[in-house]
Structures are given as C-alpha cells and as structure tokens.
Amino acid sequence: MKTLRIHLEDQYAWIGRVAKPVWFSAWLCFVALMVTGSSYCWWAFWVMVCLFASYLIAIGQIHCPRCDKRLGVLSQTQAGGRRRQRLPLENTQCPNCRLTLDYPVP
Ligand SMILES: [Zn+2]
To answer: 51-85 b/e with 16+ CB inside 10 Å = b?
Structure first.
C-alpha cells in the first residue's frame, strides 16, 4: 500500500540526489569566478538561476500516483518551507482527483 506522502518523498529524494551535486558544483564555480573577479561571474549566476528553474520544473513534473496527472508546483508548496530542517509534508492534495497525503493508493 502506497500513499501520496511516500510517493512524494521518493520523488523528492530522487530529485535531490541529482540536484544537490549539480547545485553544489554550480555554486562552487560561481564563488570561484567571483573571487577571481572574472567577468564570467554573471554567467555562473544565470546558470544557477536556470538550475533553480529546472529544479522547480522537475518538482512540477511529479505525477499523482492515483490519476497520473501532474501535481504542479503550487499544490506542493509547503508553508514554512524555507526552514532548514525537513518538514513533514502537509496540505498537499492532487488538484485533479483530490487525493490527500495519507490516503492509501492501491
Ligand atoms: Zn490525482
């Protein structure tokens, strides 16, 4: 038995495994370019902006485990998500079939 919560946590873990090393290396490049005063510094900055946008797009591509429609970024927005520690998911619901986080999906 699976729930939307387990499904989302799986997907976030998968995206995180890809995003974290990429993000970290982009950030290192940005810092290195900034320290050396290189004019490529702005390029690195825009690369980071693009990476962040792709991260949001990847989150938005997560499908509902019941109706297989995309959940979208907005339905997954969590209150207080800027805090450092991992928050338990709350209030996430499929915009299409109203699947809630702990409702079992066969
Ligand atoms: Zn759904």
So the answer is: beeebeebbeebebbbeeeebbeebbeeeeeeeee
